Amino acid sequence: MANVTESRVHEARFTSFGTTFMGPLLSFFAQNLVKNVPEKAPLYFLAREGYWLQQAYKHYLCGADIQRESHYLLVSRAFLFKILLSDSRSYAYSLKSSFSGAFYDLIRTRFLLSDSQIKQIFGEEITQELVYLPEDRKKIIDTLNQHKDRIDDVITPSKQAYLSYLDTLGVIQQDTLHLVDLGYSGTIQSLLGILLDKDTHGHYLISSNPGEHVIDNHNATMQGYLKENVKIGDGYLPLDRSMFLESLLTAPFGQFRGIRLNTFDPTQFDFYYGRKVASQRYFHELEQVMIGTLDYCKHSAKHGITFETEELEMLLGSYLSKANIVPRGVTHIFDIDDDVTGNGTVNALQFFGLA
């Protein structure tokens, strides 16, 4: 009996944390989506963060008794880098971050190609050459262009399967694609616009690059609801320590890495994911946190509770700057993987000295 009581107290701690910390933030985000997105436009929630962002949105709609269409869309930067590897329009994004090491490691970690695929495209000798970004950017692009046909042979099955998957969600039919993510620079939005040759409108909690942009002859609008025109390192705490939010706003699976048409039923898809971090291994505990968050989103919509940006910034500032304010029993779920930039798995609380 004591163990049952202790377990319930533990769960209540998780739920309470979700209510007080994430509840107001996601309620604010959902409220702004309702106000700013055209009523008949479907919303597509992106990547791992989109999993809970969509749930919060749906609970807010339920509380407000509003009907709107939304979908959770599997996507990741690295996967888009991969299926656009032969498209020179994508290099402004995929070759932007710094790198030093073997060409093989660049292609394997940033573009998700397997060992056999890398050897099939580039052969043995070239893969061991050392490359540095941004210094060797032109050299790398030249190499990719020289092997374009082989790259296409390797990536086309995944690319075609992914386009079929997007078609099942109604993405292909949209004139302007309305996308939702936590933030910040709009890389996934830009890459989807390139892949689909479509206008896009990105809705973010924080947008580093807001406004209207032209990307390959298509309009890309980026809009931030909590803050705009801030970049990492500018001193805006919710962005500088965004890893804190990302570690909680995660789907139950690892990074989206691939898709194939099912061998036995070509109308179905097989999805492939990377390794799980702590918040995914202990997803049942993260769900307890989010129960409090989602209930609060529904409650705030039903009772017309709203928040100003200054109130949320003050709330976030407390959690993101003061040590030990996060309940001790929750700290182990704050892991996040950062493979695209080569940092591996990082615990957000430990990284910022908050635990």
UniProtKB/TrEMBL annotation:
The organism's place on the tree of life at top rank: Bacteria
User: What GO MF annotations does this protein's record show?
Assistant: hydrolase activity
Instruction: Give the keywords, sorted.
Output: Hydrolase
Q: What is this protein called?
A: HAD family hydrolase
Q: What is the lineage of its organism?
A: Bacteria, Pseudomonadati, Pseudomonadota, Gammaproteobacteria, Alteromonadales
